[in-house]
Description:
This protein is mainly beta. Helix content is 0%, strand content 45%.
Amino acid sequence: GRLQLRAASVQQGPAQLELTIMRKLSDDVPLRVESLIRIHVAGEPREQTLSDVLVPDSVPLAIDSELPARLESNGQLRLSLRAGSYSLRISARMRGPVRTLQNPQRPAPWPAQEAWVFQPDAQLRQVRVSGAPSVDPARLELPQDMRGLPTFVLAAGAALQLEELSRGEPEPAPNQLSLWRTFWLDQDGQG
C-alpha cells in the first residue's frame, strides 16, 4: 500500500469582528479616561485598523492588549487579529478642563452604543452628570473596577455633560485644635 500525506485544510468561518466598548471616566486633574475594548474575532488571521479609538481631545498614556496592537499618531489602532475573544485597555487623559464628552459616530465594526461609567472624587469637586440615560450597572457585563459606579449608555453621536456644582469638599471635617500645656504655680509670688 501507499500512504499519501497532505496538509489538513481547516475551514475557517467568515471573517467577523465584534466590539464591545466600556469607558471609565475618573474625575481627576486632568480628567482620565480608561477605555476597555472587548474584541470577538472569527475567521482567518488578519490585520485590522480601527479609527477614532480615543475620546475626542484626549491624549493616550498607556495601552494594554492581549493582541499585538499599535496606536498610531493619528489616533488609529492597528490590531493583528486571530480567532478568539480578547480585551484591550487604553488609558488616556483629557487635554484640559472638560464640560462635554462626545461619543462620535464611527463606521462598522464600532457598536451603536457604549457603556460609560463615572468615578467621582468628592474631595476634588461635586459634579452632576447628564445627557445620556443612566442604567443599572448590574445589567451590563462590566469589569470589577467599573461596577457600582454611575453608569450611562451613550449612543453614537451622543454626549455626556459634566456640570460642576462646587469645588472642594462640600462639608469638610470641622477644624480641631489640640493644646497641651504644663503650668508651674509659683506659691510664694516671687516669680
